[in-house]
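queue> pop job 88
queue> type: inverse folding (structure -> sequence)
queue> payload:
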């Protein structure tokens, strides 16, 4: 780096306190590691990066907007890069747009598409580093159809039951599943059945599920503890069906509660750490830097986005401070037009949505989309088998132990 070069402040809004503090800590680590690596290689065109963090607490709109303003007005950050903040519903886009800086987040919201396309000129700097929640729904239908059509699984019928939590995120996913199911030969026999969440009592809705005897049971709620109780209550009287529990079943707390009753469950994420050579090397660096108790599977999100931003800003000739709209438009153009292969796979931003394009849900070429990863719980040590999509999978689907051989 150039001696005496002034550092470039990069903001990050992370929930360091509140219900998502565990993930927030990992988001912070991912940024720290990425900045350390970039600076060790000369920084951004000779200038070191300096991370600045703002706690978003419970992630309400008020907290996230206040954090955004603090990063811009007090610290003069050239970009804001972070994991998710569930709650602001894009309200933080307004101070970002007013300042004309770059914002990369992982909120996984279809609403991002709506906001950016409503006024591309104003929201030119707003990017979502992962695909929207909608793709969870369509991606799952494609996944179970692939299992069926490839002969890995013989469903007992064409019926499926869809249960949703009451959060908009869960409802969007459930509706997306229902909207495309018939295109792939599935019949929605129940649902989307919305249950007020959070809850640990699923017996009533499970009674409705058993009454239609589906081959596929879906719960698009995402709290790990709630999903563990859903699975425990399903196992009180299991039926011959695949069980898919959205995202939360990846967490250790799911297995801590469900124990061996959780073995066989399918779970997925639209952004995750690959188990290839790049992913394994990253995990080793992450553990070496932050200890064995850290979680590279979470920290990989802002880590990848930080590297992608640094490359794009370098191509554009540098970053832009708040108010330097012309320069940040150049950075945004470079982000849209520079495909980055990182530890989460491919980051390729859609030209209109400015969100990562998913594979195989939208892109059919694995070199042009971020892989929607499907796992299956294999044992109580939280052994998650990566079973799809090809060519990223390292293992194959196994029939859940509650399904009777036919």
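queue> result:
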């Amino acid at each position: 780096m150039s001696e005496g070069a002034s550092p470039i402040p990069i903001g990050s809004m992370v929930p360091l306190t509140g219900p998502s503090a565990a993930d927030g800590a990992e988001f912070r680590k991912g940024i720290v590691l990425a900045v350390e690596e970039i600076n060790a290689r000369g920084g951004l065109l000779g200038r070191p990066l300096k991370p600045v963090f703002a706690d978003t607490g419970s992630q309400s709109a008020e907290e996230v907007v206040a954090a955004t303003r603090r990063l811009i007005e007090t610290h003069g950050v050239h970009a804001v890069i972070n994991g998710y903040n569930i709650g602001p519903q894009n309200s933080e886009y307004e101070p970002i747009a007013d300042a004309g800086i770059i914002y990369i987040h992982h909120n996984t919201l279809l609403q991002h598409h709506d906001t950016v396309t409503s006024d591309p000129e104003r929201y030119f700097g707003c990017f979502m580093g992962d695909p929207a929640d909608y793709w969870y729904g369509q991606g799952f239908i494609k996944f179970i159809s692939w299992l069926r059509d490839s002969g890995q699984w013989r469903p007992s019928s064409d019926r499926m039951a869809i249960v949703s939590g009451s959060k908009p995120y869960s409802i969007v996913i459930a509706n997306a599943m229902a909207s495309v199911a018939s295109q792939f030969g599935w019949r929605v026999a129940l649902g989307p059945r919305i249950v007020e969440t959070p809850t640990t009592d699923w017996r009533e809705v499970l009674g409705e599920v058993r009454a239609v005897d589906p081959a596929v049971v879906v719960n698009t709620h995402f709290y790990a503890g709630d999903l563990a109780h859903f699975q425990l209550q399903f196992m009180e009287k299991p039926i011959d069906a695949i069980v898919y529990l959205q995202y939360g079943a990846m967490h250790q707390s799911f297995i801590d509660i469900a124990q061996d009753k959780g073995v066989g469950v399918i779970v997925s994420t639209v952004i995750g750490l690959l188990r290839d050579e790049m992913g394994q090397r990253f995990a080793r660096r992450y553990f070496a830097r932050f200890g064995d108790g850290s979680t590279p599977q979470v920290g990989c999100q802002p880590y990848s986005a930080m590297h992608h931003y640094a490359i794009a800003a370098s191509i554009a000739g540098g970053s832009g401070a708040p108010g330097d709209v012309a320069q940040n438009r150049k950075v945004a153009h470079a982000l849209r037009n520079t495909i980055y292969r990182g530890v989460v796979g491919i980051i390729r931003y859609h030209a209109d949505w400015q969100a990562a394009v998913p594979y195989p849900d939208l892109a059919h070429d694995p070199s042009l989309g971020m892989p929607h990863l499907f796992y299956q719980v294999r044992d109580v040590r939280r052994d998650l088998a990566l079973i799809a999509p090809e060519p990223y999978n390292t293992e194959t689907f196994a029939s859940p132990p509650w399904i009777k051989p036919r």
